Structures are given as structure tokens and as C-alpha cells.
């Protein structure tokens, strides 16, 4: 998963983009980048690391200009090397720089078509392919000054060729900012504005919280298939560019990824999580009606809102029995099972008094590999718990994600080919309960009944774009398994410092 930002402002945008990226940091901690348009030149800084580490004062001083885009990266199919940090850049036509959140599912075919067009793609990133496709379509216009319609025609042709998930922000030198969302709206994108004495500033971002944090007012979500064009003069244009757009946003944004203070497609992430708690609480009450649970304990942080609602619904005490070290990275992207196990213990610590002599219900948002839950159950027992039950706010994750979330290959998923009892035994729980998929969908839909469908492939194997078959999953498998990740990590270390890639 990644986070993107784009702004056409009335004054320098470097600090605003930086601030917005820090608020989107939860969407990717692997690399960060900002590009600004300074007169006739792009200023670019990107490198591996957290936003606060990638940008030093000297970089910020160089990122001059009133328009720019930013990106935080979480690696999925691509590599973790600094050369694949975003935004990407291509010098023709005009000079275009692009930031992408998502994953394309037909990259092999697209890469081949670009070779045939004599376009060079320098990395294994699907985002660089997307940039070249857009550039190739804009090249066709042959004009020196782009009209909004020319930009939209190019986006329409990009939609016609690409499959998969993409929310994109791209800057075109001398022209403006174009942002668009795939025809299913799988990845989120929101549009906002800020009135100043000299005119209106516009901003797009992956989550509304980024706009809130920098004082922009949310106007609306970008619709599936829609493109937004903001000229450097500050005029806003919009057009639907896809042939058959239809909403199917990724449900995992609500389960885990997005911040609770964001709203995606008019759905409050926080409210949807409270609903998940209510649904799961009802299920526990009806399926375990003679339970002996003494206390509900969340596995921080995403599940706290969910667990609180389960406790309320079951009339049980809620206690924060685990304390999280906030200054340690997420465990999921660490390749290798041993590393992941150690990392859980470094990240969480149990308060013994909350466990001793009690039957506890631990709540997490989801179980992916089962590493976290197994370790945490062990910690709960070491802290003196008598019985440890486990509740997951998401259903069993049985299929890999191909739309931009780093969900491991099928055989690394603990629920792949296993039922709840088998999972409970493997992670050492006295009992386990998963949310039903219909309840999860209902919990999210309650906040915006206009959205009839969500992208739920990790739970049901139904890939919304219709082009994902076993051979594609095998291909993803090869790119993503732990061995492949370990090899890619060897690649990290090259600290790319690209400044002033294009001089006036
Ligand atoms: P696991 O140990 O693999 O079962 O990890 C499950 C935990 O990782 C859950 O507590 C989630 O909060 C979190 N999680 C779920 N999906 C992801 C993801 N794609 N990236 C990082 N963390 C995740």
C-alpha cells in the first residue's frame, strides 16, 4: 500500500506536501519522495526511509515551486530498492512525474507494448509502466499547451489498456496536475481545496486525513474512472474517463489500512470499525452463548475501536492489556518468519495484572500469517491468562492480494486451506471466531448504502477486475514469497539522491 498527494497551490507547496505525507505515513514506511515544479524544472528528492528521515532542510530548500506531488511507498510486487522510490520521472512529452498507489495486473503485456513503442522502462515497477503509458498517450497530442480534454483523452486511453488498481497523481511541466482513479475505485483518492487571498488551491490525496491536517477542505472523493486536471493557473477540470466505471473499493482499507479519522467514499473508517465490533460481538454472543470470557483485550492499535464495541455489546470489561512501542516499525514487511516473531515481542508487551487468572478474549483486526496472534497468545499465557480466546474483525484471509496490499502468497496465509479449528490449534487459542464476510461488508456499507460492492478478493478469491487467473497468481507468488523478499532486501542501501533532474 502507498500514499499519494498532489497540490497546485498559490505559494510554495513543499512544507504542505511534507506534512501531508507524514499524515499518510501509515500507508508506507519504506520510501518517500516529493517532486515540485519550479519554473521550468522538476525538483525531486526521494529515498528509502520515513518521511522525517528522507527530507532534510537542504532538500526542502531545493523543493521550490507552487505545485507538486508526493509519495510514501509500501512495497508490493516491486522491489524495495531506492531506485524504485516514487515519484517516477520521464522527460517526454513536456516532462512528467508520477506517483501511484495500487498494483497493475497486466504489467507483463503493458511492458511488452511499451517495448514495441520503443519506450524504455528502467525498473521493475508497474508505476513506471503507468507513467510511460500516460506519457505515450500525451505524446499523441503534439501540442505545446495541453487542454483539459487532451489530458482526459489520454487518461481514457490509459484506462482502456490497464487492468488492476491505481490511484495516480502526475505533474506535467508547464501544464498542470492530473489525478485519476481506476474504474472500480479500488484504491482511494479524495479532492479538496483551500481558499487564499490570491485564489483557490487544490489538493488530491489518498486519505481525507491528509487534507484535514494541512487545512484543506474536503470537496469529494474522486469517482471510479474519473480524472481531475488542475492547470498550473489553478483552474479545475473533471471528466469521467472510463467506459463502465462501477464502485468496488477495497474493503481492507476499512479493516486495517486507513486511519480511523479518514473518510473514504463517504464512509467514516472509524464508524465502520465500530460497526465491525458490533457485528462480531453479536456473532460471539450467539455462537458462544455459554462463554466464560472475563475480559476483552485489543491487540493495539487498529483493533481498539473494534474491541471496545465488542466489550460493550457483550457487557464485558474492556482493558488495554498490551502496550505498544510506537517507535518500532510494522512487523509485516520484514521478510522471514523468525524475524517477524522476534519483532512482535519487541513491539508489544503485556501488563500481567490484566491477564492473571482470567479468561481473555483477544481481538485483532485480521489474521494474515498468524505470526502475531501466535506470539500474542503465548504472551497472554505467560502473563497468567487461564484461557485465551481470539476474535478477528475480518474473515479468514485465504487468497493473496493483487491490488496493492502486501498480502503474502497463498501458502504463507494461515487460513489458506484451513478451517477455524485448525487455525485455533496452530496459533494456540482455546477458541477462535472470525467475522462473516457478509457482516463485514454490511458493517462498512451501513455508512454509505450507495456503495453496493466492495473488493473482497482476499476473503473470497473473487478478483473484481476479472483478469486474475492461476498463472497470474503463480507469477505474484514468485515475486512475493519470503525468499524473493530477502533477495530484494540485499538490493537496498543505494541511497538515491536525485536533485534538479531537469534544469531550466
Ligand atoms: P500476522 O502475524 O501475519 O497474522 O499479522 C496480522 C497483523 O498484521 C494484524 O494484526 C494486522 O493488524 C496486521 N496486518 C494485516 N494486514 C497487513 C498488511 N498488509 N501489512 C501490514 N500489516 C498487516
From TrEMBL:
Residue numbers annotated as active site: 2 (nucleophile)
Reactions accelerated catalytically: 5-phospho-beta-D-ribosylamine + L-glutamate + diphosphate = 5-phospho-alpha-D-ribose 1-diphosphate + L-glutamine + H2O
Record keywords: Glutamine amidotransferase, Glycosyltransferase, Magnesium, Metal-binding, Purine biosynthesis, Transferase
Coiled coil: none
Pfam hit, one: Pribosyltran
Cofactor binding remark: Binds 1 Mg(2+) ion per subunit.
Pathway given in the UniProt record: Purine metabolism; IMP biosynthesis via de novo pathway; N(1)-(5-phospho-D-ribosyl)glycinamide from 5-phospho-alpha-D-ribose 1-diphosphate: step 1/2
InterPro entries according to UniProt: GATase_2_dom, Ntn_hydrolases_N, PRTase-like, PRTase_dom, PurF, PurF_N
Cofactor requirements of the protein: Mg(2+)
MF terms in GO: amidophosphoribosyltransferase activity
Binding positions (Mg(2+)): 302, 364-365
Domain Glutamine amidotransferase type-2: 2-233
Assigned EC number: 2.4.2.14
Similarity annotation: In the C-terminal section; belongs to the purine/pyrimidine phosphoribosyltransferase family.
Function: Catalyzes the formation of phosphoribosylamine from phosphoribosylpyrophosphate (PRPP) and glutamine.
Name this polypeptide is given: Amidophosphoribosyltransferase
Organism: Shewanella intestini
Organismal lineage: Bacteria, Pseudomonadati, Pseudomonadota, Gammaproteobacteria, Alteromonadales
Name of the gene encoding the protein in the UniProt record: purF
